[in-house]
Amino acid sequence: MASCLSGERVAFAHLSADVLRALAGEHDSPCLSLFMPTHRRVPGKLADRPALVAPIFAAVRERRIARELARFAEARPRGLGSDDLSDIARAAVAGRVAVLLVEKDRFEPGRFDRATGGVVPAAGLAGGIPADLSRRGDAPAFDGEDLCGALAETVILHGGGVIAVDRLAMPTESGVAAIYRYG
User: Fold this and answer.
1) Which residue, 96, 92, 66, is CA-closest to 148?
2) With 125 labelled, which of 23, 40, 54, 153 sits at a CA distance of 20 to 30 A?
């Protein structure tokens, strides 16, 4: 039993150091270090007690969201941030988006041209949006895509980060907010 406890102390010592570095801004994800080859035995100990680890990761995530919301608030007035879906789409394909904040569970149907960054919301498409997007009823399924998801994918492919934000914490009504790398 004593060896199990000492193993847990070692695991939490590694985790605590990583969390402290993350909170200090040295790196963004303490999760990554847990799965580095030097720490392969650590997740086994922690996997048995997820309730002990979950609050730590939740706190790191909340701090990161708060930091990015503050960055957006500073960037937007200087022209280094936007909440306009069309502007963000063009910036995403150009690789200008450093961080994309996306409202959790937001679905914006439409079409996205990954070559030009052109966006056509579903309301602008011929025929509009079918009444039932849930695929449960008799209405035909929409054949476009989720614009928020398409933007997130494009930002990631160009080396940017994507953070899902609760609706009440989202700084915009559009469901998206971008922090640009440059103007």
Assistant:
1) 92
2) 153
Taking the C-alpha atoms of residue 57 and residue 136, their distance in angstroms, rounded to an integer, is: 36
Average the pLDDT over 70-83 and give the result: 97
Domain spanning 79-180: CATH superfamily: Ribosomal protein L30/S12 (3.30.1330.30)
Domain boundaries, the chain: 2-70, 79-180
Split at pLDDT 50, 70, 90, the class of 16 is low
Reported as a single tens digit per residue, the pLDDT across 120-170 is 887 765 555 554 454 555 555 556 789 999 999 999 999 999 999 999 999
First CA to last CA distance, the chain: 58
Distance CA 4, CA 32 (A): 23
List strands edge to edge, sheet with 176-180: 81-82, 176-180, 97-103, 161-165
Please calculate the CA angle 160-161-163 and round it to the nearest 5 degrees.
150
Q: Taking Cα atoms as reference points, which of 181, 180, 182 lies closest to residue 88?
A: 180
Would you give the DSSP letter of residue 73? Answer: H
